[in-house]
Design a protein that fits this description.
heterodimer; A: 418 residues; alpha/beta; five-stranded parallel β-sheet; 14 helices; B: 164 residues; seven-stranded mixed β-sheet; 7 strands; 28% helix
Chain lengths: 418, 164
Amino acid sequence: MAHTLAQKILQKHTDQQITEAGQIVQCNVSLALANDITAPLAIKSFRAMGAKKVFDKDRVALVMDHFTPQKDIESAIQVKGVREFAEEQNITHYYEGGDCGVEHALLPELGLVGPGDIVVGADSHTCTYGGLGAFATGLGSTDVAGAMALGSTWFKVPPTIKVEYNGTLPAHVGAKDLILKLIGEIGVAGALYKALEFGGPVVDALDVEGRMCIANMAIEAGGKCGLFPVDEKTIAYTAARGRKDSPMTADAGAVYERIVSFDVSGMSPQIACPHLPENVKPVEEVKNVRLNQVVVGSCTNGRISDLREAAAILKGRKVAKHVRTIILPATPGIWKQALKEGLIEIFMDAGCIVGPATCGPCLGGHMGILADGEVAIATTNRNFKGRMGSLESEVYLSSPCVAAASAIAGEIADPRKL
Amino acid sequence: MSYQGTAHKVGDHIDTDAIIPARFLVTTDVKELGANCMEGLEAGWIKRVKEGDIMVGGENFGCGSSREHAPLSILGAGIPVVVAHSFARIFYRNSFNMGLLLIEVGDDINKINDRDEISIDVEKGVITNKTTGTEITYPPLPEFMREFLTKGGLIPYVKEKLGA
């Protein structure tokens, strides 16, 4: 049987024969992940299951990134419990403090995830690794606890929607705009229970970081995973991080539930308006939105290419006085690279706050919380009501390029008009 | 297995930040999570609910985060079952793992209004709306999933597998 990318990877990890979507299969997992919010519950469940040892101390990752540096006593207590568990289990990949970064930027950087892997994470944006050709999906804490104990879990084989991007991307339009465009088109439930598989010449031309940005938001369309074919760029990326991987594409004749095609030539930068990622409009239609906060960072857009994009706009300019502009390089490695390239200086000269690697503001955790009536634009992935703070605040989503241009203008702005 | 209680109707795309905002995720205590259930939808929402009441959602209920705190907070609020048009994937799986029953009924969800008195016969797959005198039928859950629920979710299942 001809397999889609999702089916192909699941097949690699199971003895059962995959014949159709909807089938339930038991698969071995390559890595199980949890963070400072979800690991405490996972550990509680792990103990309740009567489990004594994790299936493989090298294949469990615990990343304390959401409330880091710990924002209050309660969050510090949660981390303390996870740290003690990691010590007890001799977990190799426990991250806290100076070597900790936003999990979905950190794990690819460390070479812990890659092509053909099955990764389960107690975080919905685990799907990011689909950018590297991994079947990666978010599960709850107890599911991940089960995987930590057994080294396996069950999946329903998903039907796949194929997304093809054709044409040529205009200047100031990139990966984030491509995924926002798709979510605007199919809606936040458009890929419910399904896999998304991306392709076409635009995707082939994208770098690996752009692909991870797109895969990251598959969940915002309800998707189980967002997958990219594995090409030489992927192989080069993972090889530089000590892995040996091979190219992988879907089989010819694989069956797709639906094919969605876009011609991106002439496309504008896209904005997701409050309060759902599907409320997407081209930037020119979003007028007179005065801002109080701009955030560039997160597992969607906190990578070095994102910082370069923002810095290119901010260089030699100043952010508007009334806009808190927060830049969060997603990992210590990205921070160092940004420092080396002079990006940090550009941000500080422009009047930005450059913070540590943290998920904080994205989920209204800390370091960038909105008051009643405040409005933000962020390169993050969700703009649900109250997501970044007060229930009476508003969040718009965009690319780093639009966020930077908007910080300068003090209102949502089109980078093409700068 | 049957349930009856007052329906509390919420809209489409109720996300996990609405069910339990991130600022409350500094605990894993079910009661504490329950006390803040739906705080991201409306401050003090929990005050309208009594033990055994039923949550009624629209399309894509539970979208967003993988936080298991979301089904736990609903259970902690004393709500044992959610009926909706459809559910988000991770939330669906989490709920069964935690022992929260979910029932997907599609467009028939419009037959339930806020504050209607409803009862649910889980074996037969019938929801009776006592206030309007209407019925909704849905394909009953496979037996193994009902068993999964009555036994308490994923934890006892893995325990058995580990022989612990």
